[in-house]
Amino acid sequence: MFNKFPIHFSYDGVSYRGEIKPLQTGVQNRIPTSFQVVLNNVYYGQVKRRGVDWETDSPKCAIMVDTIGNEIYDWYE
């Protein structure tokens, strides 16, 4: 089981703080592949890892999906 963890980053001059919740829907190299994203107390949607790429189901996350994905990846490094 994977635990939630904090996230903090800046994008396009805006500071974001929030929480990442790993989902139990898939694992690749002992790292979850799907996550729920909450930033600045707003649910932003899901981010999924497909190989080395990141994708999302949410227009809110779409523009910064790689930034969010990199923060997630760094957490597990």
Structure description:
The chain has 77 residues and is of the alpha+beta class. The protein has one domain. Helix content is 21%, strand content 51%. It has two helices and seven strands; from the N terminus they run βββββββαα. The strands form two sheets. Strands 1-2-5-6-7 form a five-stranded antiparallel β-sheet. It has a two-stranded antiparallel sheet with strand order 3-4.
What brief labels describe this structure?
77 residues, alpha+beta, five-stranded antiparallel beta sheet, two-stranded antiparallel sheet, 2 helices, 7 strands
Unreliable stretches: none
Please report the distance between the alpha carbons of the first and last residues: 17 Å
Strand element count: 7
- What is the count of distinct domains? 1
What is the residue-averaged pLDDT? 93
Report the order of strands and helices. Answer: EEEEEEEHH
Shape call: globular
What topology does this entry show?
Blueprint: E1 5-11, E2 14-22, E3 27-28, E4 31-32, E5 34-39, E6 42-50, E7 53-56, H1 59-62, H2 65-76
In short:
This protein has 77 residues and is an alpha+beta fold. The chain has 2 helices and 7 strands; from the N terminus they run βββββββαα.
